[in-house]
Design goal:
It is built from nine helices and twelve strands. With about 425 residues, the protein is of the alpha+beta class.
């Protein structure tokens, strides 16, 4: 018997959270950017500084994700360093989970929430996730000599003699210059050529008016095309200086949540029932029509029914093709949440530990040893929602293929915990 498909919830970008709605925000709200809304826990401390560069990380997304039959309210906070050198590394990202017991929340919030505010709800609790328990040219060793004297070319008429005229040799020796300030035998470094001598030149042969052609120094070949494509501009100086002092925020926006629509969920029996009903009501021989169409499509002399196969993508990357196709079924999605199904991948997760800069597949929780699950996935369109407040600053390097958040399947928690670190796997955009 086939395994029942689990539920997948999709997040979509919604309206900007204005100043008047800031008082309504809490750890139960799903949002993009802004500052984190922590639960009212005692001694809650979190350092947002990036361990790689020292800049303050910025909140990417806040996700309220309670579990069924649990006494805890549970929220995931995903942070990232926007420095170009850290953004593409999993170490530049961080996800922390915070939990608080419902009984303690009731006691503390009963004092602060007013009756008018209690009646206000955003999209009828749409911000809550459904619950589920599952060669160096400057080295100084260059002697400045004219490359080819005007009369130093081999005489074509006397090619076999391999000799030069005495005048030619004297002229070449006269043009030889050594720009060493000391004798080579007296200098501890030996003879040193000049670094600032005249540029190399060659005279043109033939013609009444000889001219000079400047010989340009060849430039080093740039063969690492992949590195060139990944080059990004540094952060603006003002932005970098501010992030060294205080945290900043992306423009906060609400996230609308709905269950993923899957085309495979059609009930074939129901479709057949409706088709038969239509046939009976209209007295149509649909079976005969279908057979004639099938016969015409199969071609003359062919009695077999025509079959169709899904064509492979021209670029040959079936995994990426399936990834894009799944996203297009529900256009506009920016994140995916599930505790039942595996994430959709646009590129394989590297298992080889010999490549430290590649994302690796996490297996177990390093706190309790339980199995890890990919609970939250940010997809490429999420990057388009990130605008730095207050001037709507958009940075060109803030993009990715996927950001995968792996959490403990048991959501392990101890009474003295305030935040628990989860695992982030960053997959860069495919070039």
């Amino acid at each position: 018997m086939a395994k029942r498909q689990g539920k997948v919830y999709l997040g979509y970008e919604e309206e900007i959270i204005g100043e008047k709605n800031q008082v309504l925000l809490s750890y139960k709200v799903n949002k993009i950017g802004g500052f984190p809304n922590w639960p009212p826990l005692d001694n809650l401390k979190y350092s947002s500084k990036c361990p790689l560069c020292g800049l303050h990380r910025m909140l990417i997304v806040q996700c309220y994700a309670p579990l069924e039959n649990s006494v805890y309210h549970r929220t995931l906070y995903v942070f990232a360093c926007i420095s170009p050198n850290c953004w593409n590394l999993s170490e530049g990202w961080e996800c922390v989970r915070s939990q608080i017991q419902e009984s303690s929340v009731t006691k503390q919030e009963s004092i602060t929430v007013t009756p008018s505010a209690a009646n206000l709800a955003w999209c009828n609790a749409a911000d809550e996730w459904d619950e589920n328990d599952n060669g160096d040219s400057t080295n100084g060793n260059v002697m400045n000599v004219d490359n080819e004297p005007a009369n130093g070319v081999r005489n074509s008429d006397d090619d076999e003699s391999n000799s030069f005229e005495l005048e030619t040799v004297e002229q070449a020796l006269g043009n030889l210059q050594v720009f060493d300030a000391h004798n080579a035998n007296m200098s501890p470094q030996g003879a040193v050529g000049s670094n600032c001598g005249p540029e190399a030149a060659a005279e043109l042969e033939g013609g009444d008016e000889p001219g000079l052609v400047i010989v340009e120094t060849p430039t080093a070949a740039m063969n690492d095309i992949e590195a060139l494509l990944h080059q990004t501009a540094e952060l603006p100086v003002e932005l970098r200086n501010k992030l060294t002092r205080v945290p900043m925020q992306f423009i906060p926006k609400y996230i609308y949540v709905e269950e993923e629509y899957k085309k495979s969920c059609f009930n074939d029996d129901r479709v057949t029932e409706l088709l038969n009903k239509y046939k009976n009501e209209n007295e149509l021989d649909i079976d005969g029509v279908a057979e004639s169409v099938s016969g015409a499509g199969a071609g003359a002399g062919s009695g077999d029914e025509e079959t169709y196969e899904e064509a492979a993508p021209l670029h040959g990357d079936k995994l990426f093709h399936a990834f894009v196709t799944r996203l297009k079924n529900n256009p506009g999605q920016i994140l995916r949440y599930t505790r039942d199904e595996a994430p959709i991948l646009g590129a394989p997760l590297v298992v080889n530990s010999a490549i430290p800069e590649s994302p690796r597949v996490p297996n177990v929780c390093n706190r309790c040893g339980s199995r890890l699950i990919c609970e939250l996935q940010l997809v490429p369109e999420f990057a388009d929602t990130l605008k730095i407040s207050p001037n709507d600053i958009s940075l060109s390097h803030l993009h990715f293929l996927s950001v995968l958040i792996f959490t403990c399947s048991q959501s392990c928690w101890q009474s003295m915990d305030t935040v628990v670190n989860e695992i982030v796997v960053f997959q860069p955009e495919i070039v």
